[in-house]
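Practice problem: predict the structure.
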Amino acid sequence: MCHTCETEYQGNFCPRCGQSAKIGRYSFKSAFLSFLDVWGLGNRGMFRTLRDLLLRPGYMIRDYIKGMQMAYFPPFKMFFLLATLSLLVANGLNIKGYHSGSNADQEAALEKLKQDQQDVGKEEGVDTYTYAIYDAVGKVTEVVFRLASWSPALFAFSWLLLMSIILYPFFHYCPNIPDLRYSEFVVACVYTTNMYTIFSAVCDFFCIQVIGWVALALILAPFKQLSGYSWKRMFFYLFVAFLSLIVLILVVIAALVVIVGWIYNKVPVATCIILLSISALVILVLFLFIRWITRINKERFERYQERLRKVRTTIRGELPKRKGKVPPIPSEM
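Answer:
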């Protein structure tokens, strides 16, 4: 009988709630196994996922998206476990006892940034509008800097999640996965972040910065294996996406500067309208360019599917047809 739902059954698992029949009274052994299961050490899928993320990340992500989900560790659960491990390693759990959050060089850089903001505010001739813009940019830079030093996993995931909005149209009709959904692409980004976090944790543990740069370059491998694009096309799409992200950030900053200037009556209304119109035009051109690339990928994918159907039809037509009656079964002879 199941101890949770009181269902009588025969077998290893309850057919109603799925609880294992081997669960008995609580003991230190079960507590230890539960602790290992929290970190994925009691799950065979964790070791397989770690192996495939290091050796064949893109193919593993494609298998997971296509349905092999029981064979691999869940992406978001793995992300939080690796983020916790990366945080521990970056804050003292390494061979040198190095704390990245209290690095003297990083703290000195932040103090210099704050001092520059105070100096700008004390200078004569600096109005409130200029100081407000400089102060806002400085605070955003400080937040990004602290996030990157405090948790590389969260920083990498934030950038990949932001890039996924721009990258997804290029991978929507990739050769390996027809009609890739955005939710599936986010899963691919999470697994890619997990791969980067593994290399980053190793880098922080041995205090070797070279591995971190290699891990950053290896982010291209999962997307290449997942999509089936050539390296040339991959570099082109990533370059366009990165350039689009920079343009969007600059447009948003320019729009904020214009809006703040209009609020403080430092920029004429006509200038605000012109600059906002230019920003909207840049975003529209960027959107149409991405849609054009997406349409080309869709047409290429449809032509590939049509050729594949013709080849299958030809193969079926060339197969020899069976003639005569079906031979009798040996027992009937």
